[in-house]
Amino acid sequence: MKPSINVRVKHICYTAILYTVTYLIFRYVFWVSGILPIYTPGWAGSNILWIIAVISMFPILFGWLKFPYIAFAGLLLGNVAGELFGGFHSDIPPRYLHYGWFICIVVVIVSFVIGVHIERRTKKYSK
User: Does 94 sit behind a cis peptide bond, omega within 30 degrees of 0 on the bond before it?
Assistant: First the structure.
């Protein structure tokens, strides 16, 4: 059974608030000119955050209410993992690139796959 329109709208609003607050934190705290300039959250806030937000909110229209929160957790986990493991040798010669952006994208894609799997499994057992 699909959730009602009111429940879906409520989850769209919650997800939009989560992504808006995350954008503001990434942009004004972690960006280059922010309080604590860290590469991966700053990059994610300016390049992929809104794309991930739209992709994760779209399945709510079809009744997938867990998917956006799993995708959001993937974004946060991807930023942490990207910052921890992406710049391993970026500050010593020969100045390797910071791969935090790549790690973040991979973790987000994996979270999308996990979200789809959980939603399908939930629908299968609820019948």
Answer: yes
Structural tokens at position 9: 């709208």
Amino acid at 13: C
Q: Which residues contact 11 (CB under 8 A, 6 or more apart)?
A: 60, 65, 68
Q: What is the pLDDT along the chain (127 residues), one digit of tens a residue?
A: 678 889 999 999 999 999 999 999 998 888 877 788 888 898 899 899 999 999 999 999 999 999 999 999 999 999 999 999 887 665 566 666 778 899 999 999 999 999 999 999 987 766 5
d(CA 119, CA 126): 11
Question: Residues 6 or more apart from 21 whose CB is under 8 A from it?
Answer: none
Spatial distance between the Cα atoms of 101 and 41, rounded to a whole number of angstroms:
9
Contact 112/74 with Cβ under 8 angstroms? yes
Exposure string for 75-98, b = 16+ CB within 10 A, e = fewer: bbbbbbbbbeebbeeeeeeeeeeb
